[in-house]
Amino acid sequence: MTLQVTRRQFFKLGAAGMATSSMAMMGFAPDAAQASIRHFKLTGAKITRNICTYCSVGCGMLLYSRGDGSINSTDDIYHVEGDPDHPVSRGSLCPKGAGVLDFIKSESRLSHPEVREPGSSEWKRISWDDALDRIARHMKDDRDANFETHDENGNLVNRWLSTGFLAASATTNETAYLTHKIVRNLGILSFDNQARV
Ligand code: SF4
Fold first, then answer.
1. What pLDDT, on a 0 to 100 scale, did the predictor assign at position 57?
2. Cα distance between residue 47 and residue 77, in whole Å
3. How far is the CA of 194 from the centre of ligand 1 (A)?
4. Ligand 1 pocket, residue 82 CB under 6 Å
5. Residues 6 or more apart from 150 whose CB is under 8 A from it?
6. Does the beta carbon of 188 sit less than 6 angstroms from any atom of ligand 1?
7. Segments of the chain scoring below 50 in pLDDT
8. In degrees rounded to 5, what are phi and psi of residue 65?
9. Which of 97, 120, 10, 117 has its CA nearest to residue 51?
């Protein structure tokens, strides 16, 4: 049996459908209707787990991105939300964390190492390999020159006071433990975390 619909009835049905969609967007529709819209927005996205970059609460995030890594595709993060499986935040993000997409896409965001040579006012881009080599070279030279085994009273101190270390809060407990071990084993006392900045 075929359904007979006149032209007038067809337009009425269309208008009713549009009204229903609009009502759904305004929050008057069943949860299922909203869930279906959300499903299509995120269909095919690559999901990457990460930790909020801002504070020491360390809330878990899900980053949704386009791009499959092929040569002509451009990776692009287009949606971020709380990770419901994260043991700390259980899917919650504060307004700052929920707006992290603005930070990710900010034109002023630093995304590669830069160096300003002594006496220069210009910053120049360098590779990560060069950056790590330079940091290691500077740390070694400074430690060799300034490491103190004893204080002025002859007490054993084994300390290195002329270099400090700023770590990140967005790490796992294991990473934080290893970072602490390395820094203290080098004798560095000035050790802090970006979450307090
Ligand atoms: S979402 Fe908010 S509370 Fe959680 S780590 Fe980020 S800034 Fe801190």
1. 85
2. 9
3. 13
4. no
5. 156, 157
6. no
7. 1, 17-22, 24-25, 197
8. -135, 155
9. 97
**Whole-model pTM?**
0.63
Q: Where are the beta strands (DSSP E) in 42-187?
A: 46-51, 60-66, 76-82, 114-115, 124-125, 148-150, 156-159, 165-167
Residue-wise pLDDT for 114-147, tens only, equals 999 999 999 999 999 999 999 999 999 999 999 9
> Ligand 1: distance of its center to the CA of 55 in Å?
5
Residue that the structure tokens 């002509």 belong to: 72
pLDDT value at position 20? 47
* Strand pairing category for 191-193 and 165-167: parallel
Give the HSE-up count for residue 106: Cα atoms under 13 Å, Cβ half-sphere. 10
Distance of CA 27 to CAs 20, 24, 31, 33, 34, Å? 11, 5, 8, 10, 8
